[in-house]
Design brief:
single chain; mainly alpha; Citrate Synthase, domain 1; three-stranded antiparallel sheet; globular
Length: 430
Protein backbone atom coordinates (compact mmCIF):
# COMPACT_ATOMS: atom_id res chain seq x y z
CA UNK A 1 0.00 0.00 0.00
CA UNK A 2 1.40 3.38 -1.03
CA UNK A 3 1.25 6.35 1.36
CA UNK A 4 0.03 8.52 -1.49
CA UNK A 5 -3.62 9.36 -1.98
CA UNK A 6 -5.85 11.18 -4.44
CA UNK A 7 -8.08 13.83 -2.90
CA UNK A 8 -11.54 14.04 -4.42
CA UNK A 9 -13.73 17.07 -3.78
CA UNK A 10 -17.47 16.90 -4.49
CA UNK A 11 -19.43 19.84 -5.95
CA UNK A 12 -20.82 20.58 -2.48
CA UNK A 13 -17.32 20.72 -0.99
CA UNK A 14 -17.15 17.26 0.64
CA UNK A 15 -13.60 15.90 0.45
CA UNK A 16 -12.33 12.34 0.55
CA UNK A 17 -8.86 10.82 0.33
CA UNK A 18 -8.63 7.78 -1.95
CA UNK A 19 -5.53 5.72 -1.17
CA UNK A 20 -3.15 4.58 -3.89
CA UNK A 21 -2.17 0.92 -4.03
CA UNK A 22 0.99 -0.22 -5.78
CA UNK A 23 1.70 -3.65 -7.21
CA UNK A 24 5.05 -5.26 -7.95
CA UNK A 25 5.14 -3.64 -11.40
CA UNK A 26 2.59 -1.88 -13.55
CA UNK A 27 0.35 1.14 -12.95
CA UNK A 28 -0.77 2.08 -9.45
CA UNK A 29 -4.48 1.81 -8.69
CA UNK A 30 -6.78 4.15 -6.78
CA UNK A 31 -8.74 2.34 -4.08
CA UNK A 32 -12.34 3.57 -4.44
CA UNK A 33 -13.93 1.03 -2.10
CA UNK A 34 -15.26 3.72 0.26
CA UNK A 35 -16.29 6.18 -2.46
CA UNK A 36 -20.00 5.32 -2.50
CA UNK A 37 -20.19 5.01 1.27
CA UNK A 38 -18.68 8.44 1.91
CA UNK A 39 -19.57 10.39 -1.25
CA UNK A 40 -22.70 8.65 -2.54
CA UNK A 41 -21.37 8.26 -6.10
CA UNK A 42 -20.12 5.41 -8.28
CA UNK A 43 -17.37 5.48 -10.88
CA UNK A 44 -18.32 5.05 -14.54
CA UNK A 45 -16.00 2.94 -16.70
CA UNK A 46 -17.67 1.07 -19.60
CA UNK A 47 -15.82 -2.15 -20.31
CA UNK A 48 -13.80 -1.70 -17.10
CA UNK A 49 -10.89 -0.47 -19.20
CA UNK A 50 -9.48 1.67 -16.37
CA UNK A 51 -10.64 -0.41 -13.44
CA UNK A 52 -8.68 -2.98 -11.46
CA UNK A 53 -11.28 -5.62 -10.63
CA UNK A 54 -9.11 -7.77 -8.40
CA UNK A 55 -5.65 -8.36 -6.97
CA UNK A 56 -3.73 -11.15 -8.71
CA UNK A 57 -0.20 -12.57 -8.78
CA UNK A 58 -0.64 -14.82 -11.83
CA UNK A 59 -0.04 -12.85 -15.05
CA UNK A 60 1.31 -9.41 -15.95
CA UNK A 61 0.89 -7.52 -19.22
CA UNK A 62 2.42 -4.24 -20.36
CA UNK A 63 0.81 -3.50 -23.70
CA UNK A 64 2.99 -0.49 -24.49
CA UNK A 65 6.25 -2.40 -24.00
CA UNK A 66 4.96 -5.70 -25.37
CA UNK A 67 5.49 -7.66 -22.13
CA UNK A 68 3.61 -10.81 -21.12
CA UNK A 69 4.75 -12.75 -18.04
CA UNK A 70 3.35 -15.82 -16.29
CA UNK A 71 4.24 -15.73 -12.57
CA UNK A 72 7.10 -13.37 -13.45
CA UNK A 73 8.55 -15.49 -16.26
CA UNK A 74 8.57 -13.84 -19.73
CA UNK A 75 6.40 -15.81 -22.13
CA UNK A 76 9.25 -15.84 -24.66
CA UNK A 77 11.44 -17.84 -22.25
CA UNK A 78 8.66 -20.27 -21.43
CA UNK A 79 7.77 -20.75 -25.10
CA UNK A 80 11.41 -21.46 -25.99
CA UNK A 81 12.28 -23.77 -23.09
CA UNK A 82 9.19 -25.11 -21.40
CA UNK A 83 6.15 -27.26 -22.19
CA UNK A 84 2.45 -26.62 -21.80
CA UNK A 85 2.24 -29.11 -18.92
CA UNK A 86 5.08 -27.35 -17.09
CA UNK A 87 3.49 -23.94 -17.74
CA UNK A 88 0.19 -25.32 -16.43
CA UNK A 89 1.91 -26.40 -13.21
CA UNK A 90 3.46 -22.95 -12.93
CA UNK A 91 0.15 -21.14 -13.38
CA UNK A 92 -1.70 -23.39 -10.95
CA UNK A 93 0.96 -23.55 -8.24
CA UNK A 94 2.96 -20.35 -8.52
CA UNK A 95 6.41 -21.86 -9.07
CA UNK A 96 8.16 -23.99 -11.67
CA UNK A 97 8.15 -27.66 -10.69
CA UNK A 98 11.12 -29.81 -9.84
CA UNK A 99 11.73 -32.78 -12.12
CA UNK A 100 9.88 -35.04 -9.67
CA UNK A 101 6.94 -32.63 -9.31
CA UNK A 102 6.66 -32.25 -13.07
CA UNK A 103 6.68 -36.02 -13.60
CA UNK A 104 3.98 -36.53 -10.95
CA UNK A 105 1.84 -33.72 -12.38
CA UNK A 106 2.23 -35.02 -15.94
CA UNK A 107 1.29 -38.55 -14.83
CA UNK A 108 -1.80 -37.24 -13.00
CA UNK A 109 -3.03 -35.40 -16.10
CA UNK A 110 -2.32 -38.39 -18.39
CA UNK A 111 -4.29 -40.75 -16.14
CA UNK A 112 -7.42 -38.61 -15.88
CA UNK A 113 -8.19 -38.03 -19.54
CA UNK A 114 -11.10 -40.46 -19.83
CA UNK A 115 -14.68 -39.24 -19.46
CA UNK A 116 -17.52 -40.85 -17.60
CA UNK A 117 -19.09 -43.00 -20.33
CA UNK A 118 -22.43 -41.26 -19.81
CA UNK A 119 -20.86 -38.03 -21.00
CA UNK A 120 -20.14 -39.54 -24.42
CA UNK A 121 -23.83 -40.43 -24.70
CA UNK A 122 -24.52 -36.78 -23.94
CA UNK A 123 -23.07 -35.90 -27.34
CA UNK A 124 -25.72 -37.94 -29.11
CA UNK A 125 -28.26 -35.30 -28.15
CA UNK A 126 -26.54 -32.64 -30.25
CA UNK A 127 -27.25 -32.04 -33.92
CA UNK A 128 -24.49 -33.33 -36.18
CA UNK A 129 -23.74 -29.78 -37.31
CA UNK A 130 -23.71 -28.16 -33.85
CA UNK A 131 -20.85 -25.70 -33.38
CA UNK A 132 -18.04 -27.30 -31.36
CA UNK A 133 -17.93 -24.32 -28.96
CA UNK A 134 -21.61 -24.78 -28.19
CA UNK A 135 -20.95 -28.42 -27.37
CA UNK A 136 -17.82 -27.64 -25.36
CA UNK A 137 -19.60 -25.07 -23.21
CA UNK A 138 -22.60 -27.35 -22.65
CA UNK A 139 -20.60 -30.47 -21.78
CA UNK A 140 -18.19 -28.66 -19.45
CA UNK A 141 -21.17 -27.09 -17.70
CA UNK A 142 -22.61 -30.58 -17.25
CA UNK A 143 -19.46 -31.97 -15.64
CA UNK A 144 -20.79 -31.13 -12.18
CA UNK A 145 -23.55 -33.67 -12.85
CA UNK A 146 -20.97 -36.40 -13.47
CA UNK A 147 -18.24 -35.36 -11.06
CA UNK A 148 -20.25 -33.99 -8.17
CA UNK A 149 -17.98 -35.39 -5.49
CA UNK A 150 -14.97 -33.36 -4.29
CA UNK A 151 -16.85 -30.10 -4.93
CA UNK A 152 -16.06 -28.26 -1.69
CA UNK A 153 -14.32 -25.12 -2.93
CA UNK A 154 -13.01 -24.41 0.58
CA UNK A 155 -11.03 -27.67 0.46
CA UNK A 156 -7.61 -27.24 -1.17
CA UNK A 157 -7.44 -30.88 -2.23
CA UNK A 158 -10.86 -30.60 -3.90
CA UNK A 159 -9.66 -27.53 -5.78
CA UNK A 160 -6.65 -29.51 -6.99
CA UNK A 161 -8.84 -32.39 -8.18
CA UNK A 162 -11.07 -29.96 -10.08
CA UNK A 163 -8.03 -28.34 -11.70
CA UNK A 164 -6.65 -31.68 -12.83
CA UNK A 165 -10.00 -32.78 -14.23
CA UNK A 166 -10.45 -29.64 -16.32
CA UNK A 167 -6.93 -29.81 -17.73
CA UNK A 168 -7.05 -33.55 -18.41
CA UNK A 169 -10.59 -33.97 -19.73
CA UNK A 170 -11.10 -30.86 -21.83
CA UNK A 171 -9.09 -32.23 -24.81
CA UNK A 172 -11.22 -35.39 -24.73
CA UNK A 173 -14.41 -33.30 -24.79
CA UNK A 174 -13.05 -31.11 -27.60
CA UNK A 175 -12.06 -34.12 -29.70
CA UNK A 176 -15.50 -35.70 -29.19
CA UNK A 177 -17.14 -32.49 -30.45
CA UNK A 178 -14.94 -32.61 -33.56
CA UNK A 179 -15.69 -36.29 -34.18
CA UNK A 180 -19.43 -35.64 -33.93
CA UNK A 181 -19.12 -32.89 -36.55
CA UNK A 182 -17.17 -35.16 -38.88
CA UNK A 183 -19.42 -38.22 -38.42
CA UNK A 184 -16.58 -40.38 -37.11
CA UNK A 185 -16.48 -42.61 -34.02
CA UNK A 186 -15.07 -41.20 -30.80
CA UNK A 187 -11.44 -42.05 -30.14
CA UNK A 188 -10.46 -42.80 -26.56
CA UNK A 189 -7.38 -41.16 -25.03
CA UNK A 190 -4.04 -42.91 -24.59
CA UNK A 191 -2.06 -42.55 -21.38
CA UNK A 192 1.25 -43.23 -23.13
CA UNK A 193 1.04 -40.06 -25.22
CA UNK A 194 1.95 -36.50 -24.24
CA UNK A 195 -0.77 -33.88 -23.83
CA UNK A 196 -0.66 -32.58 -27.39
CA UNK A 197 0.10 -35.96 -28.97
CA UNK A 198 -2.97 -37.36 -27.26
CA UNK A 199 -5.12 -34.52 -28.55
CA UNK A 200 -3.93 -35.10 -32.14
CA UNK A 201 -4.60 -38.82 -31.71
CA UNK A 202 -8.16 -38.22 -30.49
CA UNK A 203 -8.82 -35.69 -33.26
CA UNK A 204 -7.47 -37.55 -36.28
CA UNK A 205 -7.13 -41.26 -35.53
CA UNK A 206 -9.74 -43.68 -36.89
CA UNK A 207 -10.33 -47.32 -35.93
CA UNK A 208 -9.66 -48.52 -39.49
CA UNK A 209 -5.95 -47.75 -39.62
CA UNK A 210 -2.97 -46.68 -37.48
CA UNK A 211 -2.39 -42.97 -36.98
CA UNK A 212 1.13 -41.59 -36.92
CA UNK A 213 1.57 -38.40 -34.91
CA UNK A 214 3.71 -35.75 -36.57
CA UNK A 215 6.13 -34.39 -33.94
CA UNK A 216 6.08 -30.93 -35.59
CA UNK A 217 2.29 -30.82 -35.26
CA UNK A 218 2.53 -31.75 -31.56
CA UNK A 219 5.26 -29.16 -31.04
CA UNK A 220 3.17 -26.47 -32.73
CA UNK A 221 0.12 -27.22 -30.57
CA UNK A 222 2.24 -27.19 -27.41
CA UNK A 223 3.60 -23.77 -28.33
CA UNK A 224 0.16 -22.39 -29.14
CA UNK A 225 -1.23 -23.62 -25.82
CA UNK A 226 1.65 -21.96 -23.93
CA UNK A 227 1.02 -18.65 -25.69
CA UNK A 228 -2.73 -18.89 -25.04
CA UNK A 229 -2.48 -20.15 -21.45
CA UNK A 230 -3.37 -16.86 -19.75
CA UNK A 231 -3.80 -13.19 -20.56
CA UNK A 232 -4.57 -11.45 -17.29
CA UNK A 233 -8.06 -9.94 -16.69
CA UNK A 234 -9.55 -10.34 -20.14
CA UNK A 235 -13.24 -10.86 -20.98
CA UNK A 236 -13.39 -14.64 -20.47
CA UNK A 237 -11.16 -14.70 -17.39
CA UNK A 238 -13.14 -11.95 -15.71
CA UNK A 239 -16.29 -13.91 -16.58
CA UNK A 240 -14.89 -16.99 -14.82
CA UNK A 241 -14.05 -14.89 -11.77
CA UNK A 242 -17.45 -13.18 -11.75
CA UNK A 243 -19.41 -16.42 -12.13
CA UNK A 244 -17.23 -18.16 -9.56
CA UNK A 245 -17.55 -15.31 -7.04
CA UNK A 246 -21.14 -16.37 -6.34
CA UNK A 247 -19.90 -19.72 -5.09
CA UNK A 248 -21.31 -21.49 -8.15
CA UNK A 249 -19.75 -24.85 -8.93
CA UNK A 250 -16.43 -24.36 -10.73
CA UNK A 251 -17.46 -26.30 -13.84
CA UNK A 252 -20.20 -23.72 -14.42
CA UNK A 253 -17.65 -20.93 -14.04
CA UNK A 254 -15.35 -22.49 -16.66
CA UNK A 255 -18.32 -23.06 -18.98
CA UNK A 256 -19.15 -19.35 -18.64
CA UNK A 257 -15.57 -18.52 -19.63
CA UNK A 258 -15.86 -20.75 -22.69
CA UNK A 259 -19.05 -18.96 -23.72
CA UNK A 260 -17.34 -15.57 -23.34
CA UNK A 261 -14.37 -16.75 -25.41
CA UNK A 262 -16.62 -17.64 -28.34
CA UNK A 263 -17.17 -14.05 -29.49
CA UNK A 264 -15.28 -12.72 -32.55
CA UNK A 265 -13.92 -9.81 -30.49
CA UNK A 266 -12.19 -12.26 -28.17
CA UNK A 267 -11.23 -15.88 -28.82
CA UNK A 268 -13.09 -16.06 -32.11
CA UNK A 269 -10.57 -13.73 -33.73
CA UNK A 270 -8.44 -16.53 -35.23
CA UNK A 271 -11.55 -18.03 -36.80
CA UNK A 272 -12.35 -14.59 -38.21
CA UNK A 273 -8.85 -14.48 -39.78
CA UNK A 274 -9.48 -17.58 -41.87
CA UNK A 275 -12.92 -16.36 -42.86
CA UNK A 276 -11.29 -13.11 -44.01
CA UNK A 277 -8.65 -14.97 -46.03
CA UNK A 278 -11.35 -17.03 -47.70
CA UNK A 279 -13.25 -13.83 -48.51
CA UNK A 280 -10.16 -12.29 -50.15
CA UNK A 281 -9.79 -15.55 -52.02
CA UNK A 282 -6.68 -14.98 -54.10
CA UNK A 283 -3.31 -13.22 -53.97
CA UNK A 284 -4.39 -11.01 -56.88
CA UNK A 285 -7.16 -9.54 -54.68
CA UNK A 286 -4.88 -8.44 -51.82
CA UNK A 287 -4.35 -4.91 -53.15
CA UNK A 288 -8.09 -4.37 -53.53
CA UNK A 289 -8.85 -5.54 -49.98
CA UNK A 290 -5.96 -3.58 -48.46
CA UNK A 291 -7.41 -0.42 -49.99
CA UNK A 292 -10.84 -1.35 -48.61
CA UNK A 293 -9.28 -1.73 -45.16
CA UNK A 294 -7.71 1.73 -45.44
CA UNK A 295 -11.05 3.29 -46.41
CA UNK A 296 -12.79 4.51 -43.24
CA UNK A 297 -16.14 4.39 -45.01
CA UNK A 298 -15.78 0.74 -45.99
CA UNK A 299 -17.04 -1.82 -43.43
CA UNK A 300 -14.35 -4.34 -44.38
CA UNK A 301 -11.67 -4.86 -41.71
CA UNK A 302 -8.50 -6.89 -41.88
CA UNK A 303 -8.62 -9.44 -39.05
CA UNK A 304 -5.48 -10.59 -37.24
CA UNK A 305 -3.54 -7.33 -37.43
CA UNK A 306 -2.62 -5.12 -34.48
CA UNK A 307 -3.86 -5.73 -30.94
CA UNK A 308 -5.98 -3.69 -28.55
CA UNK A 309 -3.61 -4.51 -25.66
CA UNK A 310 -0.19 -4.66 -27.34
CA UNK A 311 0.11 -1.23 -28.94
CA UNK A 312 3.48 -1.72 -30.62
CA UNK A 313 4.07 -5.44 -30.88
CA UNK A 314 2.74 -8.69 -29.49
CA UNK A 315 5.51 -10.64 -27.71
CA UNK A 316 3.79 -13.86 -28.77
CA UNK A 317 3.66 -12.95 -32.47
CA UNK A 318 7.41 -13.30 -33.20
CA UNK A 319 7.54 -16.73 -31.57
CA UNK A 320 4.46 -18.02 -33.30
CA UNK A 321 5.53 -16.58 -36.67
CA UNK A 322 8.63 -18.79 -36.64
CA UNK A 323 6.52 -21.82 -35.77
CA UNK A 324 4.00 -20.94 -38.47
CA UNK A 325 6.63 -20.97 -41.19
CA UNK A 326 8.16 -24.15 -39.72
CA UNK A 327 4.79 -25.92 -39.87
CA UNK A 328 4.08 -24.79 -43.43
CA UNK A 329 7.50 -25.99 -44.55
CA UNK A 330 7.42 -29.30 -42.66
CA UNK A 331 3.89 -30.26 -43.70
CA UNK A 332 4.49 -29.10 -47.27
CA UNK A 333 1.39 -26.95 -47.18
CA UNK A 334 3.10 -23.76 -48.28
CA UNK A 335 1.85 -24.06 -51.85
CA UNK A 336 -1.79 -24.20 -50.88
CA UNK A 337 -3.45 -21.03 -52.27
CA UNK A 338 -4.78 -19.95 -48.87
CA UNK A 339 -1.32 -20.10 -47.33
CA UNK A 340 0.20 -18.27 -50.27
CA UNK A 341 -2.38 -15.58 -49.67
CA UNK A 342 -1.64 -15.44 -45.92
CA UNK A 343 2.11 -15.11 -46.46
CA UNK A 344 1.67 -12.40 -49.09
CA UNK A 345 -0.68 -10.48 -46.81
CA UNK A 346 1.87 -10.84 -44.01
CA UNK A 347 4.53 -9.18 -46.17
CA UNK A 348 2.18 -6.34 -47.08
CA UNK A 349 1.46 -5.67 -43.41
CA UNK A 350 5.16 -5.76 -42.49
CA UNK A 351 6.22 -3.38 -45.27
CA UNK A 352 3.27 -1.07 -46.03
CA UNK A 353 3.68 2.39 -44.48
CA UNK A 354 -0.01 2.54 -43.52
CA UNK A 355 0.27 -0.66 -41.51
CA UNK A 356 3.58 0.34 -39.93
CA UNK A 357 2.33 3.79 -38.89
CA UNK A 358 -0.73 2.30 -37.19
CA UNK A 359 1.19 -0.69 -35.78
CA UNK A 360 -1.08 -3.10 -37.64
CA UNK A 361 1.36 -5.99 -37.38
CA UNK A 362 0.33 -9.65 -37.84
CA UNK A 363 -0.73 -10.82 -34.38
CA UNK A 364 -1.04 -14.16 -32.60
CA UNK A 365 -4.55 -14.73 -34.00
CA UNK A 366 -3.28 -14.37 -37.57
CA UNK A 367 -0.55 -16.97 -37.18
CA UNK A 368 -2.46 -19.37 -34.95
CA UNK A 369 -5.31 -19.53 -37.45
CA UNK A 370 -2.89 -20.41 -40.26
CA UNK A 371 -1.19 -23.08 -38.12
CA UNK A 372 -4.48 -24.69 -37.14
CA UNK A 373 -5.60 -24.80 -40.76
CA UNK A 374 -2.26 -26.30 -41.83
CA UNK A 375 -2.64 -29.02 -39.20
CA UNK A 376 -6.01 -29.94 -40.70
CA UNK A 377 -8.09 -28.46 -37.89
CA UNK A 378 -11.31 -26.94 -39.27
CA UNK A 379 -12.13 -23.29 -38.74
CA UNK A 380 -15.05 -24.10 -36.42
CA UNK A 381 -12.57 -25.73 -34.02
CA UNK A 382 -10.17 -22.78 -33.76
CA UNK A 383 -11.85 -21.21 -30.73
CA UNK A 384 -12.08 -24.64 -29.11
CA UNK A 385 -8.32 -24.96 -29.42
CA UNK A 386 -7.96 -21.52 -27.86
CA UNK A 387 -10.17 -22.66 -24.98
CA UNK A 388 -7.97 -25.72 -24.40
CA UNK A 389 -4.94 -23.50 -23.89
CA UNK A 390 -6.78 -20.87 -21.85
CA UNK A 391 -8.48 -23.45 -19.56
CA UNK A 392 -5.49 -23.59 -17.23
CA UNK A 393 -5.44 -19.79 -16.92
CA UNK A 394 -9.14 -19.74 -16.09
CA UNK A 395 -8.64 -22.46 -13.52
CA UNK A 396 -5.69 -20.64 -11.92
CA UNK A 397 -7.74 -17.46 -11.63
CA UNK A 398 -10.71 -19.34 -10.19
CA UNK A 399 -8.44 -20.95 -7.57
CA UNK A 400 -6.94 -17.60 -6.67
CA UNK A 401 -10.33 -15.93 -6.45
CA UNK A 402 -12.04 -18.66 -4.43
CA UNK A 403 -9.18 -18.92 -1.92
CA UNK A 404 -9.05 -15.15 -1.26
CA UNK A 405 -10.27 -14.59 2.33
CA UNK A 406 -11.30 -11.04 1.38
CA UNK A 407 -13.12 -12.11 -1.77
CA UNK A 408 -16.58 -10.71 -2.44
CA UNK A 409 -19.34 -11.57 -4.89
CA UNK A 410 -18.97 -9.46 -8.02
CA UNK A 411 -21.42 -6.57 -7.98
CA UNK A 412 -20.82 -4.02 -10.77
CA UNK A 413 -22.76 -0.76 -10.61
CA UNK A 414 -24.55 1.18 -13.32
CA UNK A 415 -25.62 4.61 -14.47
CA UNK A 416 -29.39 4.25 -14.64
CA UNK A 417 -31.03 6.16 -17.52
CA UNK A 418 -34.48 4.52 -17.58
CA UNK A 419 -37.81 6.04 -16.48
CA UNK A 420 -38.19 7.50 -13.00
CA UNK A 421 -40.81 6.03 -10.65
CA UNK A 422 -44.26 5.94 -12.24
CA UNK A 423 -47.66 4.43 -11.42
CA UNK A 424 -49.09 1.29 -12.99
CA UNK A 425 -52.24 1.70 -15.04
CA UNK A 426 -54.72 -1.06 -15.77
CA UNK A 427 -54.66 -2.39 -19.33
CA UNK A 428 -58.14 -0.97 -20.05
CA UNK A 429 -56.97 2.54 -19.13
CA UNK A 430 -53.95 2.64 -21.44
Amino acid sequence: MSEDAYRLKSPDGLEIDLPVRSGTIGPDVIDIAKLYREQGVFTYDPGFVSTGSCESDITFIDGEKGILMYRGYPVEQLASNSSFIEVSYLLLNGELPTATELDEFDTTIRRHTMLNEGMLSFFKGFRYDAHPMAMLSAVVGSMSAYYHEEMDASNKEHRNIFSHRILAKLPTIAAAAYKLNSGQPFIYPRNDLSYCENLLHMLFAVPAEPYEIDPVAAEALDLLFILHADHEQNCSTSTVRMAGSSGANPYSAIAAGIAALWGPAHGGANEAVLNMLEEIGDVSQIGKYVEKAKDKNDPFRLMGFGHRVYKNFDPRATIIREMCHKVLQKLDRKDTPLFDLAQELEQVALNDDYFKEKNLYPNVDFYSGIIYRALGIPTSMFTVMFALGRSVGWTAHWREMIADPEGKIARPRQLYTGPAARDYTLVGDR
